[in-house]
Amino acid sequence: MTTQFHALHRVVLPAIIIVMLGMLSCKKDVAPRTDQTTKAHTETVTKAGGKSVCYVEVNSNSLLNTGKYTLTTGGQQLFDIAIIFAANINYNTTTQKAYLSNNPQVTSVLVNKSTQIVPLQNKGMKVLLSILGNHQGAGFTNFTSRTAAHDFAKQLADTVSYYGLDGIDFDDEYADYGTNGTPQPNDSSFVFLLSELRSLLPTGKIISFYYYGPAASRLSYGGQKAGDFVDYSWNAIYGSYSVPNVAGLAKSQLAPAAVDISSTSQSTAVSLANSTKNNGYGVYLWYNLTSTNKASYFSAVSQVLYGSNVTYTP
User: Fold this and answer.
1) Which of 43, 57, 173, 196 is flagged as catalytic?
2) pLDDT digits over 4-32, tens only?
3) Which CATH number fits domain 51-312: 3.20.20.80, 3.20.10.10, 3.30.300.30, 3.30.43.10?
């Protein structure tokens, strides 16, 4: 039994039951298939002012809440990317390999993709699955070979394909490197993992990086860098402004502002939006959306980023 929460959120979630991917999610040894009855019809949405990204703790909140907010002027969705928080990278002590695991709440979102994921995609939004450590020693920075990194990347790519997701988000927290006799972080692992995942994903799929943990200081190896494979990166410290140092990413791909909707004051959120706009960055990060109507709070920021209030539609 474990708990999981984002860096510095100070929000502890209920204990979760670990469910192996091979039982309730896609199976690594079975070729993914596309369910034609639930395939998303994606609309083209154009919105000046950059992208808004939102993590949702699906243990306690519905991912669909992200689709309830639109710009009053123009009608575009406030959130361009919704992130399912979170699946886990676990460790099999028998095989001594990392594997992807989903708790019951994450599994429910995935297997009910036709009602939980596709409706958001039909609004023009992208849906990513965030991957988080789980205190078992497995993480993104301690694969000891490209083959091992490929094996885990294959599980991620199969999951994206099977559930019709738009990509993967990496959050290098709570791995507890060294647990179960696992290795400590090394310089090649994360770059290998990103490289392998990018080669396995179809064109247009997204890889994002929550700029935190050992991975944040291991972003280049052998002439390759994380920015060669990652589409976006965002600051991990809520209520602050800090530019992720990911070489190869343009300002349009970076979010130096990070907001915890439940605890960051509106005045701070507006100040962070002004800094984002004035400094020419293209992404704004939100975390911890609940079912509470936050249109007024969002409108203050949206006025800065998009020149529009926000409308809430339950």
Assistant:
1) 173
2) 556 544 333 333 333 333 333 333 233 33
3) 3.20.20.80
